[in-house]
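Tokens in:
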């Protein structure tokens, strides 16, 4: 996938500017390790055949901070963030689409999700996931590095 302005939000100034036409060779997915849905999707992504390798790293972790020191790590647990090997930064709906694009079985679906017909479906899916997360994860207090555990243990409410 080559980056266009509509597919990725601009990365921090220290990232290498993506050059049109250069292929994405690797993606890093920053996911919320406290979210049962996010952890489930992490495992699902790992089981899929990947056309573009995915590195799955907990958002806000020491590893994420080491790899991407210029990112706003307070924001990454709140919204899925995917970083390309050339510094492309994808968030929210675009991040989900680029994850699917990296998978052999879902690449054509990812292309469809970028069309005028598919984009509302992709956005609706992201909104549904956000709603689920709001139900199973307690809100974090501003400025707190670690949030309370989800109700019902690591897998959410029972």
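Residues out:
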């Amino acid at each position: 996938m080559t980056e266009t302005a509509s597919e990725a939000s601009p990365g921090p100034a220290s990232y290498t500017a993506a050059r049109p036409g250069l292929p994405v060779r690797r993606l890093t997915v920053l996911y919320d390790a406290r979210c049962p849905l996010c952890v489930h999707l992490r495992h699902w992504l790992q089981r899929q055949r990947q056309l573009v390798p995915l590195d799955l790293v907990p958002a806000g972790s020491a590893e994420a901070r080491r790899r991407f020191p210029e990112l706003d790590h307070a924001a990454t647990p709140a919204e899925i963030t995917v970083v390309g090997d050339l510094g492309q930064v994808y968030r929210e709906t675009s991040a989900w689409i680029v994850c699917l694009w990296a998978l052999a079985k879902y690449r054509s679906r990812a292309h469809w999700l970028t069309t005028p017909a598919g984009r509302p479906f992709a956005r609706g899916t992201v909104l549904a996931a956000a709603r689920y997360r709001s139900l199973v994860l307690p809100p974090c207090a501003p400025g707190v590095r670690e949030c309370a555990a989800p109700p019902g243990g690591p897998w959410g409410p029972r």
